[in-house]
Amino acid sequence: MPAATENIITVKDLVKKFGSFVANDHLTFEVKRGEIFGFLGANGAGKTTAIKILCGLSYPTSGKMSVAGFDIYTQREKVKKNIGYMSQRFSLYDDLTVYENIRFYGGIYGLRRKEIDTRTHALMQRLGFESARDKLIRDIPLGWKQKLAFSVAILHNPKIVFLDEPTGGVDPITRRQFWDMIYEAAHEGITVFVTTHYMDEAEYCDRVSIMVDGRIAALDTPDNLKKQFGTFSMNEVFIKLARA
Amino acid sequence: MSDITVHVEHLTKKYGETLALDDISFDVGKGELFGFIGPDGAGKTTLFRLLTTLLLADTGTGSVAGFDLVKDYKNIRNISGYMPGKFSLYQDLTVEENLKFFATIFGTTIHENYDLIKNIYQQIEPFKNRKAGKLSGGMKQKLALSCAMIHKPEVLFLDEPTTGVDAVSRLEFWEMLKRLKDAGITILVSTPYMDEASLCDRVALMQNGRIMTISTPGQVIRNYPLSLLSVKSSDIYHLLGELRDYPGVHSVYAFGQSAHVAFSAQKIEPEALSEFLKKKKHESVEITRIDATIEDCFMELMNSPE
Questions:
Q1: Using the 8-state DSSP alphabet, how is residue B186 labeled?
Q2: How far is residue B224 from each of residues A174, B47, B64, B71, measured CA to CA in Å?
Q3: CATH architecture assigned to A7-82+158-243
Q4: Which of B124, B257, B283 to mutate against chain A (most A CBs within 10 Å)?
Q5: CATH 3.40.50.300, chain A: domain bounds
Q6: pLDDT tens track for B210-268
Q7: ipTM, 2 dp
Q8: What is the pLDDT of residues A45-67, one digit of tens each?
Q9: Which chain A residues touch B192 with a CB distance below 8 Å?
Q10: What sign for the dihedral angle of Cα B68, B74, B75, B78?
Q11: Does residue A128 belong to the interface with chain B, where contact is any CB pair within 8 Å?
């Protein structure tokens, strides 16, 4: 991992209320540049709410936040230009071809046609998908879709990529290949902010935060968390925290 | 054959060109907790739709509790409980209305079978006037299971009940299944989470429409054909690549913060491997011999040509 000390995300006292319900209760944390940051929590703990705010899709009730150096209240469009996002149910269009999807997203991020073509070519080669360039997304295997969705999410070289349960449903080998891609992106300096329900994947992260009922109940390296809770796996750490 | 609850022979199902199920055969015994383990696209949902008589197979035969999948579909529907993978309750009915609806359809009442669902339903009963669409993931799952159970079925078909559910809710769900099994109900459950295999009496590992193996979880692990070392170092990213180049290594997979190194013909001495890694400047190297997990077995089966 590059020895980076620069913070790419800073969150101070983030509060988000829906009526009287407090979804995010004074979250405070930083994410370093190039880090793989695991954002874990039980269903309903407030993860999605926080991610939406960090992506500039929803306003917080209060708190100070900056993402990629930009203020979350006043520079939302700049935030959006500097991040990538891949959701659980990947964001590719089923009835467009592989190439058309890449072109579409490239266009959205303001890349020029020529640039898109160069990047598409490089991307297809790296993934070994050359033969699938003109296939419809609905006709390619799930594992390919997921790798492609990730590649598209970082097509514009964002500073940060948000991955919301990126590996749901894939086979164990593809899941590991996916993490190889995550490591690679992190080595190239892209910060990875990832949620998952697979607790072994939590151990691939440099640091992990665990949310319980709208608050961050723990935040540290997987090793330190296991030591702190006297367990052998992140699964046990998670269960101890979420059941408490 | 009264101790067999589900019997299936050579089931095949195609969607256009796609072979969703490829010659599937198996038996599930009465009172068994049987797991279908595999990723999306393995054929789990198609299989469950065939068994619940919602789809017809292209070829092959099968029966549930002695009733034929085609001829006796009405009987099968009466004695089966089905929890589909996608939440399929009425979002704009309340918790209690949903349960009442399912009870009425099957000609029974909540009161009549309350004992059976009590343990599960009590956890969501405080919210019985809330609309189902407004429930959290874990609560929806409990309501769906209650609705699948309310007519006191002999067999339960649960299609990926724990997908997308957090580790704690998954644990609680499996505790509920254990209690239903103890009450004598036969349970067929599918899951993409390999670690849930050990909670089943027997499992079928599925991939691309085929069953790769059927056995008890313990036997699946004993059948693993290779030897395994767990290797840790301070730099897992480079460790994986370098281990793959080590002579005699069959496969290397990341498992959390360690790498599982499999080898067969050639013995690998942990001492020699440790020396090799130290030369590659790895620090805090730890090597231990380990038994395979179901996930190791699954990946090895995926790679084995048949």
A1: E
A2: 20, 26, 32, 41
A3: 3-Layer(aba) Sandwich (3.40)
A4: B257
A5: 7-82+158-243
A6: 999 999 999 999 999 999 999 999 888 889 989 999 989 999 999 988 999 999 866 78
A7: 0.85
A8: 899 899 999 999 999 999 999 99
A9: 168-169
A10: positive
A11: no
